[in-house]
Amino acid sequence: MRTIAVFLDDEGKIEQLPAKGQAKVAILEYLAGKFSFDMDYTEKEVNAIIDSWHTFGDYFLLRRELIDYQFLSRTIDGVRYWRNKKD
After folding, report:
1. What CATH number should be reported for the domain holding residue 48?
2. Is this model's pTM higher than 0.90 or not?
3. d(CA 63, CA 48)
């Protein structure tokens, strides 16, 4: 598998989200690792965590991708978020 280091800066922040493939999934998994299991987050908390781990200023995109790739889930009204456990 391709390393994610090429997409991170010297501080480990995501500089670029790969368009597709294993590299994209690996970056999203890396970002999901910044969230704890068995903990609920507000949308504001999710945004703040994501914002602190990337440099390109689009936490909306990253939040949506984390949900679409099922690393995070949320209630229908978006009030509560949590990290999914993978099999």
Report:
1. 1.10.10
2. yes
3. 11
